[in-house]
Design goal:
single chain, 307 residues, 12 helices
Length: 307
């Protein structure tokens, strides 16, 4: 990884990133463009920086992209790497996601156990008796607990806790994991989400790729002369994703496993993966994936990456 800074036109990018709009509002510009050096993170080795810069400038020159847009486009493309790295740091330092999933797993095990006992008409678990699920409040360092013996409150409170886990605790990883489930997932699904087979990072990265493709498409249409990108906009985005080594995060697109589309080198001449005729259609399908959610839970992307 290489850290650097690049001049970015915040007046343009504020339309695509809420955090940059907040930053723009902090600096009165009197109608002039607000240019700020923003921190970036590139997925390259230390010795590859010059080769990467050369390759990027060649790409800009190749397609006739205006020089004053080069910093903006670079910032947009590196945002995936920047935010995924920050997310990994936070997840590695925090165990709350696993704690929350363990709580939900324990709750669903209790519900399943109760349903079995009800089916067996065991005393205290028949359908016409009180709900056996109760909420208790206690000091974690003491043995005593205060129960809430209010009919139905246990299930109601756990459901509220579930919604809060998804929306109110500023836990991006947990929000992504649970987003597809309006209600608490079944026990088997929770165990799957908790297990190593469920890589929430892949889910987040895939959405970031889709969002980035949409942002690049909108940026080109808004700020780049049409003759530059006409009929080749998606091909440019494909090549940018390959250069920044983020194409590999797109998931399965057009029956292609994008994890195989890894940047191989940064030499002056290199061959892009897939047949050239498929590049534009590949990005077209990626952009379609951006409409899977009503809004990006990451805040397009993570809200903790303000510079």
């Amino acid at each position: 990884m290489v850290h650097d800074k690049v001049p970015v036109n915040i007046s343009k990018l504020k339309h695509f990133y809420p955090m940059l709009e907040d930053l723009h509002n902090q600096y009165p510009s009197d109608g002039e463009p607000l240019i700020i050096n923003m921190e970036i993170l590139l997925e390259i080795n230390e010795g590859e920086q010059n080769a990467f810069e050369s390759r990027y400038l060649l790409l800009i020159e190749k397609y006739g992209i205006p020089e004053d847009a080069a910093g903006d486009i670079l910032y947009i493309n590196q945002k995936i790497t920047h935010d995924l790295t920050n997310l990994d740091i936070i997840r590695n330092a925090d165990t709350q996601t696993l704690n929350a999933l363990d709580f939900l797993i324990g709750y669903q095990k209790l519900v399943d156990d109760i349903n079995i006992k009800k089916a067996q008409n065991k005393t205290g678990y028949t359908t016409n008796e009180e709900d056996p699920i109760t909420i208790q409040v206690k000091d974690r360092h003491s043995n005593g607990a205060v129960p809430l013996l209010y009919e139905g409150s246990g299930r109601f409170i756990v459901k509220m806790i579930y919604q809060a886990l998804k929306t109110s605790f500023n836990n991006t990883a947990l929000s992504y994991i649970l987003d597809d489930y309006p209600e608490i997932p079944p026990l088997e699904q929770l165990i799957y989400l908790r297990g190593e087979d469920m890589d929430s990072r892949k889910l987040i990265a895939r959405e970031m790729v889709a969002k980035t493709a949409s942002i690049l498409s909108a940026y080109f249409e808004k700020y780049i002369p049409k003759p530059v990108y006409s009929k080749k906009k998606n091909s440019i985005i494909y090549e940018l994703f390959y250069l920044f080594d983020t194409l590999k995060y797109a998931g399965k697109v057009m029956d292609v496993d994008s994890s195989t589309l890894i940047r191989m080198n940064l030499k002056k001449d290199y061959t892009l993966p897939l047949d050239k005729s498929r590049h534009a259609d590949f990005i077209k399908e990626v952009i379609k994936n951006d409409h899977r959610r009503d809004h990006p839970l990451s805040g397009a992307f993570l809200t903790f990456t303000k510079s």
